[in-house]
Each structure stands twice: as structure tokens, then as C-alpha cells.
Amino acid sequence: MKFRHALLPLSLLAALPTLAAARGLDVRDMVTLDRVSSPVLSADGRNVVFAKRTTDASYKSTSALFVRNLLTRDAAPPRQLTPAGWNVNSPSLSADGRTVYFLSAKNGSQQLYAQSLSDGAPRQLTDFPVDVDSYHVSPQDDRVLFSAGVFQDCGSDLACTEGKLKQKRDAKASGQVFDAMFVRHWDTWNDGRRNTLFVAPLPTGNAAAVKGASALSATLAGDAPSKPFGGNDDFAWSPDGTSVVASIRVAGAQEPWSTNFDLYRFDASGRQAPVNLTANNPAWDAGPVFSADGKTLFYRAMKRPGFEADRFGLMAMDLASGQTREIAPQWDRSAGGIVLSADGSRIYTTADDLGEHPLFEVEVASGKVTRLLGEGSVTSVDVAGATVAVTRNSLKSNDQVLVGRIGQDGQAIDGLRALTPEAGEVLKDVQFGDYEQFSFKGWNNETVHGYVVKPHDYQEGRTYPVAFLIHGGPQGSFGNGWSYRWNPQTYTGQGYAVVMIDFHGSTGYGQSFTDAISQHWGDRPLEDLQKGWNAALKQYSFLDGDKACALGASYGGFMVNWIAGNWNSPFKCLVNHDGVFDQRMMGYATEELWFTEWEQGGTPYEKPANYEKFNPVNHVADWKKPILIIHGQQDFRIPVEQGLAAFTAAQRQGIESKFLYFPDENHWVLKPHNSILWHDTVNGWLKQHIGN
């Protein structure tokens, strides 16, 4: 495979001396890049609306909606629709395509607004005592189905939740008694509220914003959408507006070790009890989408209870009989969502695939799968007739909004054009490192893939120090995509080459490849990393194997801790972000217990040997290399004590080490100033130990 690079037009050849001196990407560039998302098409495919977040020089962000008339081709750029300073999100369009709905906290609480695509100002539609977290307007544009965090015993009384929160704030004592888990989840302590679905009528004409709503899912002790990352793809209206289907886990005290999300059907009027449509599947059912005639429900389903990284298959349910079938059982990829063609004959979905995240078309009748759009990672999709709008990113650019037309008979997308610029067009003085995918034989003599990214200032014949990046998950991938947290270009921009290996356990190479890591955290993936490192050094002579540092987060942080005691010879330094240090304590202290119990084959008291087999804490005496450890106080997935313990292990032995602590970050570092500090600290650590 060739290195991916931009070909220079002849008119720029004279500027080569200037281009050769171009700088690399800096974290400050990355933080201030515009971020586009959520493209939605009008039903006739004439207009596309998308969100754009901009960040100023002081790193303060604001967001707005933009609209583009696709019939004007490139004559008119996207036009800002919502007023400046409103900070809006979650756009959707009315059935006639003339009105855009969105969420904004402009007036203090996040509520639903509407605005004409042609002119006029936003109009507030809801004025609830609680925030609207996510929503779907009904197909008839007369009601809104929305989720809000409430105390479910309040029923339809939304003000009751605010009253209970005030009582807690005013209480003299701060303690809280728990008799069940979750006690905390991701980065939030459990205060008793659940994400709950409500239905409310929308005001007509000049009527005031609606203040009341009817609870739909309050009788089910589960979150809709799920916490912490669920969204409005967890629930859907039927085409006639009479019912709603939502994915909800109702597991009682077993919730922290259950992945049994079921699809419940609700009477939109609230007169009938909810019905569990997928009670026969004890694993995860998600993403309901109705056919246009309302007779078929499409969704995604896993098969193995307790395994969050199982393959999501595409399913079709006949709602009259309850019969289900898998649409493409031979497709060995995990579907990332469902966008249905107007006639219901095709599903458009994304999935990890060989180091990329392409867009696929799946024929409902035959199960035939066609890869429509690759060359990077497709992050959102909307389809109207033959028109498709996506956001796509790559190792050289953050998301762009792209539009095109879907060819006949499963052909690729025709006439693909960008409505927003790529990173290189915005950062004209920045040179991005070229990249190439490579492969080698790893564990069990199976093919393993990786990427190598050249320094931004690469010159033939020179050698460069290496940042060896290890992805988290562990069921994840470091491939042809953009990241604001682990971006290879922030290292190539400092003069480093980057090597990334999608070891066994990674996604996009078939489910058996993903499954291979469970109960094998420290042997199979380590063998892949070792063989991948050697293969990269052999294939790419510009890599300086004597000047390398290994870096990773989450599972990647675990692997850095594991490498520290089991394979530290190639590396001059190590960086562990939020990594597991003690497997046994991780099994008791993390919140989503299904994860550790699946990965280790049981609980710590049932399978103690499994937790000790690949436990970094047992190999501390073999640590030798300088290590930078980073952790956030609000990380409840891998609690901060894991990072503190690793720092203690290094300090107590006199090993050169630093601890970067964020009191206000979770498992990820998200705040712009903190992101800059993170990157400056990490790059400083690399510069100290392998130069630049």
C-alpha cells in the first residue's frame, strides 16, 4: 500500500522551499478547529442542515446550525441559520422540510426550539422545569417525544424532580445511603434520577411554549436512553404516531452486570402498558427504526449476554407476528446504526472494517452488503431518496460534511463533494504526516494490521524517533480516523514517526478476532505488538528503533503497565493514561461490572487466578523505564487510585516518573486548556527521553 499524500499542482512547485519549512500540527491548532456534525437532509433532498462548533483564541466554544441548498451546487456556501451565541445542537427537520428543530440552553435550561429554514427567529416550543436531553418530533409534527433525567416516582410531574433536587441541596447533611448499584457511573454519582421518556403536544400558531408532558417510561426502572452515552437513536416513533419503541435495560439489582437491553413498545397516548418485544433475547437490542408502513421494525442485536463488544447484527421484526430474522448473518462486522431507504429495501450503516469505518449498503431482502464509502471514518449519515449526506474524517483531517448520490444497484456514491473544508484547507501552514497501512503475521500466525505515520517534516534517508501508540477498549481500533484525544498528527507534528497496531481484540477484522483478547489481555495482544513493532522496523527504515516511547490509554494504559514489567527493552519511556494497574481491584472498583467479568471470565472471587494472570501489579519489581502516569479524578471507569498506585510503584523504586492529575476530568481529557496541558506534558516527556 502506498503512503497517502497530497499531489502538488505544477503551479505550486516554485513554492517547494516554503512548503518544506511548513510546521506540523500543534494541539492548539487541533483545539481551535471548527467541528461539524449531525447533517440532516430534507425529505426532498434539496437542503442539508448541519451543526458547527467554533472555538475562539481563548478556547471558548459556540455552536450554530448552517443550511445549504444543494441545488445551487457550489455557487452559494452554507448559510448560518441560528443566531450567534445560541449554542445549539441536535437538529432535525419537519416533514415538509421547511422548519428545523433543535435544542438550546439559551434561556438557562435546554429546551426545544423551531426556526424556519427561509427566515425568522427561533421560537421556543417547550418550557419544562427540567432539561430536554434528547428528542424526536412526531411524523405529524404535532408532538415531541423527549428524554429527561427525573425521579421516576414523580410520574408526569416534571416540577416534582426540581423540588426533590432542591430538598437535597438544602439538606444539612450531605451523606447518601445506597442499597444497590450503580453508586456512580462514568463520571457521575447516582442521585436517583433516571433518563425517562415523555410525550408533549407542540404549540401551534403563536401559542406559548408547552410546560407539561406525559410520562411514557416512568413505570420501567431503566434509563431511556441508556447512560452514559445513549441518544435519540435509542427510541423512535411509529410512522402513524400512535406508538413508540425504545431500548431499555430493566435489570433491577443486576443492572451493573447486565447488558440485556430490550425493545419496549409504548402506546403514545399512555393508555396501555408497555410491551417487551425482544424478551426472548437475553443480550443487547438497540436502535429501533420503523419501516414507512409501520409493519416492520428494524434494529440491531447482540447474541451473548454480558458482552458489550459482541457483534451487532441487523435484525427485522414483523410486528404483527413478532417473528424476527437477521438480515445479513454472513456479514462479519458489527453494524453501527440504521438509516433506512424510503422504500425500506436498503439499510445504510457504518462499521469498523480493516482499519477504517466506512459506509455500507445492506439489501434487506438478500442481505447483500456493499461498501459505499471508505477512505477514512464515516461518523454520521442521512439519506433522502438518492441523496446522501455524511460526515467523514481521516488521519489527515477532522470531520467534513460531504454530499453525493447513491448509484444504482449498490454502486459507490457518485458526485461526492465537500460542503465544509478539510483541516489542511483551514491550517494552510500546517503539513500533515503521510500514512500507510501495513500487515504482518501475529498471534496464531493470523494477519494483523497496523498504521505507520511519517513525521510532518519527513526527508528521505533520515531516521526519526517513534511514538508507539496502543489503543484502548480493548475492543477498539487505531485506524484511518481523526481523534481529538489520541491524534497521531500531534506527534508527527513534533517530529516523531508513529506506529499503531490493531492487535487481536481490535474491531473491524471479524468477531473471532475481537473475541481473541478476552481472558488473554497480556499474551495474545502483546505478541501482536512485539511482532508488529519488529515488522514496522523491518519495513520502514526511517523508524529509529533505539529512540521510542510506548503510550496508551485505558486498556492501552494497562498494556503500558504490562509492558513496563514484561517487555520494556525497546522503549526509552512510557506513558500510561487512565490505565489498569491492579486487575483484582479493578474488578471491585469499576462501575460496569459486566466488562471485567466478561474479560476475566467471572468475578474476582469466583475466578481469582484469572485476575492475577495478567496483573501488572505482580510485575512491578521488573519496572525499569521512566514512566509518565496521567489520571482524572472523575474517572469512575478506571478509578484514580489505579493511577496513584502505579505512580507509587515507580516512585518507591526510584524510577524516574511523573504524575499528571486532573481533578475535573473523567476517563477522557475534554476541556481545551486541560487538553493543551496534556499534550504539552506528554510531548515534553517524549522530547526529554527520545528528542524531537
What is the averaged pLDDT score?
Answer: 95
How far is it from the N-terminal to the C-terminal residue, by CA? 27 Å
The main pleated sheet reads as: 8 strands, mixed
| Number of DSSP helical runs | 13
Q: What is the multimeric organization of the chains shown?
A: single chain
Basic shape: globular
Low confidence ranges: 5-20
Major sheet: arrangement of strands: 31-32-34-33-35-36-37-38
Helix content: 10-25%
User: Rg, please?
Assistant: 26 Å
Helix-strand makeup class: alpha+beta
Strand content: 25-35%
- How many β-strand stretches? 38
Description:
The protein has 13 helices and 38 strands. With 692 residues, the protein is an alpha+beta fold. Strands 31-32-34-33-35-36-37-38 form an 8-stranded mixed beta sheet, with helices on both faces.
